[in-house]
Amino acid sequence: MEPRWLKDVCRRVLWPGCLLYVVFVSGPASAIDIHTDPEVIVQNGTTGVLQCTFKSSEVVTKSTTVTWSFQSNQPDHQYFKAPYVIYYFSNGQGYPANTEFKERVQFIGDINKKDASIQLSPAQFSDNGTFFCDVKNPPDVTGTQARTELRVVLKESLPQSSTVIIIWAVCGALFLLVIIAVAACFAIKVLHNRHDYEGAR
């Protein structure tokens, strides 16, 4: 039978010590928060920018890594079934994968500013699909990778910006005012001529 004092030691010292170890030493790693644009629309043959930023409670170091993957939305594409890595950044260096993106993908972000963006130049119709950005900043290694839907379209299919719409609206309004002014001048001239004609009679 164990002495009572031994049970007291286990209950008052060992158990609290084990609990503190679990909480402060072997607890879960911090989560990293990754953000991308939900959708990017790019004209075929131009440069497409895929932005990716992240938030981490840890200082960025050479151990920070960035992985960009791609999954096509075209059934006949080789990357349709599952995402494939197209670019890997580690230890301050970028490593394009030996794929169709090798000569077109470029890292344009700044890891120290927590920016992991890339660009595709030129963008092609075969790039239509989902791009995944994953960042690891040890010990911040848990978190959900962010995703961007890329749409490569013809110039005619590009959505017009609000600025263009406003310009067209202003031009349309000015054109309408000119038409109204011309019509008013014409009406005044007709009335004036009629008045002169009636006065001459």
TrEMBL record:
Pfam families in UniProt: V-set (PF07686)
Transmembrane segments: 165-191
Keywords: Disulfide bond, Glycoprotein, Immunoglobulin domain, Membrane, Signal, Transmembrane, Transmembrane helix
Lineage: superkingdom: Eukaryota
InterPro entries, per database record: Ig-like_dom, Ig-like_dom_sf, Ig-like_fold, Ig_sub, Ig_V-set, Myelin_P0-rel
Cross-referenced PROSITE patterns: IG_LIKE
Coiled-coil residue windows: none
Subcellular location: Membrane
Annotated ranges, domain Ig-like: 28-151
GO CC annotations, alphabetized: cell surface; focal adhesion; plasma membrane
Membrane topology of this protein: Single-pass type I membrane protein
PANTHER family: MYELIN P0 RELATED, MYELIN PROTEIN ZERO-LIKE PROTEIN 1
Family: Belongs to the myelin P0 protein family.
Protein name as catalogued: Myelin protein zero-like 1 like
